[in-house]
Fold these 3 entries.
Entry 1:
Amino acid sequence: QVQLVESGGGLVQPGGSLRLSCAASGSIVSIYTMGWYRQAPGKQREFIARITGGDSTMYADSVKGRFTISRDNAKNTLYLQMNSLKSEDTAVYYCNLVRGVTYWGQGTQVTVSS
């Protein structure tokens, strides 16, 4: 069983930055593809970014150039650095890990508002 726990969300003004973390149980962060998704009220969950075991990254067009996905293998933690935040980035952010099945964390709320 894989457990993922997100943290780092909060309230930030437009143009600000936040770094989300996703702590995984076990030494698995470096092996499997992990990603970030978000879900805004009334909308479907959408892909934000992913990183493979081979360090290949991919981003949604809406966040490209503003968000950066990375991981610390020693800490078994996935990160999402979010810069130049906009009000439309407001959502619950989820991390996931694909190992045969897809595991999800519980989510962390990000609110971008002045």
Entry 2:
Amino acid sequence: QVQLVESGGGLVAAGGSLRLSCAASGRAFSSNAMGWFRQAPGEEREFVAALSRSGNNKYFQESAKGRFTISRDNAKNTVFLQMNSLKPEDTAVYYCAAKTGSRRDIYYITPLDYDYWGQGTQVTVTS
């Protein structure tokens, strides 16, 4: 079992920044590939960013490239999503997800790839 708890969401003006954190407990964090997804009202859950368990490989949704970064601190069992230059269209509930037993340098970009999910944190960007 893996428990994931997101934090760091909030209300921010367009152009601002937020840093989301996802604290994991349970099975060895370092063996998990991690991802961030988001879901806006009335929309499907969509991929935002992914990070291999090694931390060597990462991938971003096109709209996030150049604005968002993903990183992990295995000593703290935490994955981060740094979001800069935020836009109103980034408004959504953001979820972190873990894929257990993943290969070292592989990242995953579809929700079905992931085994565990957090409860989500709301991000609202005002224009």
Entry 3:
Amino acid sequence: QPQLVESGGGLVQPGGSLRLSCAASGFTLSSYAVGWFRQAPGKEREGLSCISAIDEPTYYADSVKGRFTISRDNAKNTVYLQMNSLKPEDTAVYYCAAEGPAPIIQDMCVMIRGTYWGQGTQVTVSS
């Protein structure tokens, strides 16, 4: 049974950092494009960053460009989202998704596409 599990969320002060993990089981994540998305209360789900199956290209939304970095560890079947310089407006539930076999990365993020989705992890940025 294919499954994605996010972890690494929590409470952090403004300006702080967190690293989210998206671990896959039941399928090989390196064969899929992977994206990170978030949804704040009362808002639509937003695509933040997506990475192709071969690491290039990657896409970042303007809201996180320069602050967030997506990366893969194929040996661990895991994709990460390093989040720096966090702001209160980054508070949301963060989800990862996998899409195959070779989507257009920008479309995956902008149109919120994914074949498999995780259950989400809460990130709260507050002092």
